[in-house]
Amino acid sequence: MTNRLAIEIAGLRLSNPTMLAAGILGLSGASLLEAAKNGAGAVVTKSVGLQPRAGYANPAVVQVGCGLLNAMGLPNPGTKDFAEEIRELKKGGLKVPVIASVFGFSGEEFADAARVLTRAGADGVELNVSCPHVDKTGSEIGQNPSLVAKVVKRVKNAVDTPVIVKLTPNVADIVEVAEAGVRAGADAIVAINTVRAMAINVETARPILANKIGGLSGSAIKPIAVRCVYEIYENVKVPIIGCGGITSWRDAVEFMLAGASAVQIGTAIASEGLEVFKSITVGIDSYIMEKGFRSVKEIVGLSHRH
Ligand code: RRO
Fold this sequence. Notes:
The chain has a single domain, classed as TIM Barrel (Alpha-Beta Barrel). The chain is 35% helix and 20% strand. The chain is built from ten helices and 16 strands. Helix 3 packs parallel to helix 5. The site of ligand RRO has 13 residues, from loops.
């Protein structure tokens, strides 16, 4: 029997279009495996760089209206240690693609990190050029199309796996950045990372996050993310992975109608638990059956007909 939920992204075969987003549970092989066992069609690791980083002081996460605000500051064990996690994970029988999210402070660092983690068994790499609150990396690269192109080219020359670029919404024109990434060889795009934001405690008059400024995720950013996917789909040919506030199957379908071939789920795991992968997958399946489609592929970009 053919699986009507199966989808291919730049050569990666997903049995359903849900993915674990970067930064959520992705710091250990065991938690990535848990997400896969709960139905994720692919898993993305926390962003990992060449050197270990402690990240920012607490409070690093705060709940705000309709979302979460974070400034974790790229805490990670470094590629050398994390390569072991990936090796164990692959030995431990992971049945879905694992995508290594990598960051660096230069194109060369991105390429070296990507090389180490793909050699350890990662099936693809996601370039984090979009973290909104760490100096000299993340959105400082992702806000500049020529820097994005430079990083993508370096990584493409370093690895044989698909290279996916995760974009920041904190730009005037996300299409321009997406096009630069694709011209440089990106195989797919993730839209979007968190929206630069802050919260202030009115009793103490202090910014709540230790880093003061952070990134907003969750339902609050969903319409921004849908708009970004829609605009990118009109202008680039590579698959788009939607990310930003997806909590229900309706959200997932909305992103697919906007042009996403798959969706990443992050913040919703905090409120819904890992069951969210199954509930979204079952909901998408019922939707395509009820609407008379044979495959989930048929709904990708459908809203552009109107
Ligand atoms: O670690 C973080 O603070 C972080 C990262 Br790497 C990112 O890409 N997006 C975000 O909201 N936080």
